[in-house]
Amino acid sequence: MKIKEGFTLRTICGESVVIGEGLSQVNFNKMLSLNASAAFLWEKVQGKDFTAEDLVTLLTDHYDVTAERARQDIDNLLKVWQEQGVIE
C-alpha cells in the first residue's frame, strides 16, 4: 500500500487533518480527521510503501498496545483510508 500522491497531513486549529492538494484531489464535502496515533502512522509511512503489518509494528513499538489490539485498530484504520480513497 501507499498513500496516494496529493494528500497531505496538516494541523488545523490543533487538529490533524488530511487534505487533498491539487485540483484532482479537491472535495470540499469531506475532510479526513486523524487522531494522534493515526497521524503518527501517516507521518511514518507517507511517501513509502507499507503493509498492515508495518503499521502494527509501528503502533506496538511506539504505544503500549498488544499486537492483537493494534491489528484490530489497523484493520479499522485501513478500511477508513480505503473508503476515503487516500491509499492505493
Indicate the topology.
Layout: E1 7-12, E2 15-20, E3 32-34, H1 36-45, H2 52-62, H3 67-84
Antiparallel strand pairs: 1-2, 2-3
Helix pairs in contact: 2-3
Total domains, how many?
Answer: 1
Largest sheet: 3 strands, antiparallel
Shape: globular
| Lateral strand order in the biggest sheet | 1-2-3
Instruction: Say how many strands there are.
Output: 3
Low-confidence stretches: none
Encode the helix/strand succession as letters: EEEHHH
Report the average pLDDT across residues. Answer: 90
Taken as a percent bin, the fraction of beta residues is 15-25%
Q: How much helix is in the residues?
A: 40-55%
Q: What is the gyration radius calculated from CA atoms?
A: 13 Å
For the record, give the distance between the C-alpha atoms at the N and C termini, rounded to a whole number: 5 Å
Question: Structural class of the secondary elements?
Answer: alpha+beta
**Tally of DSSP helical segments:** 3
